[in-house]
Model the fold of this input.
Amino acid sequence: MKLGLGIYAGMATDDNLQFARQLGVTRIVQHLPGAETFPSATSGVWSYEDLKALVDLIDRNGLKLEAIENFDPAHWSDILLDGPRKEAQMANLQQTIRNMGRAGIPTMGYYFSLAGVWGRVHGPYARGGAESVGYIEAEAPEQKPIPKGEVWGRRYDPDAPDGDIGEVTHEQMWSRIEYFLENLVPVAEEAGVRLAAHPDDPPLPVLRGTARLITHPDFYDRLLSIKPSHYNAIEFCQGTVSEMVGSDVYGAIRKYAGQNIAYVHFRNVVGKVPNYREVFIDEGDVDMYDALTAYKEVGYDGVLIPDHTPRTKCSAPWHAGMAYALGYIKATMRALDIDIEV
Done:
């Protein structure tokens, strides 16, 4: 397996990459880059030059860029909304995927959702009162309709007219993702870039009046059947799967990790939707030793990243949380005799 670290917008610096390398990380996942990382983002396409510059920066620090996670909402808003610009935006996404392939980036993670990761609250939910996030039904904000000009909780059009997008059904969302996959998977195959779908977090069937797609691991079957291909894959957020009502985390790992999972968010939670909280990797409902055993049994050889971690009381809470999680993962891999691929 490969050990990775996810970094957020603006975090691709020599210091952070050296931190990753010092902890034994070999792969980087860049989450939701904007114009601070890719100046070309304002054009609707991530240019080859910007992508290659990020690859080279990471490479100079002894690491490899495994994936970019999540398109800029403005790049595919009308694909998500079935709007009048969806064909132009699809052409732009296709060019972005070609540019990623040319730059040598193997995976594009995406989250096909209108509400996105919405409604989570912060609190002292982890061991020792460490600050973390969760979805607590009684504390969640009111589910107001999504205003026009917004997707994924981000404003992409400040000049959008008043009003909201209204209700969106499950079949409408499945129709939209079918358009997305049917048009992008063939380009991804040619470019050598896997498209990897994140499940819905929080995994509620409807949020802010809009239907959600992957709220149980079995729904991945429908997604994978739309365009069967090695390049139509899964971004397996283990924490989100464990939040799902009726899900079997270990069964889902064994079902999909052998060939369908591109990379893994390896984190732990307590509870299930509509009431759960994220905690330290070793205190949640999932036995992470058993989870890694399942990945090993089916021959998973992809990347694991810690994803979110609680914020400890120190001067560098993000770094401390990631260091703790990565150390736990490495030790568990060693106990299971799992080699970490360089």
User: Anything to note?
Assistant: The chain has ten helices and 16 strands. The radius of gyration is 19 Å. The first strand starts at residue 2 and ends at 7.
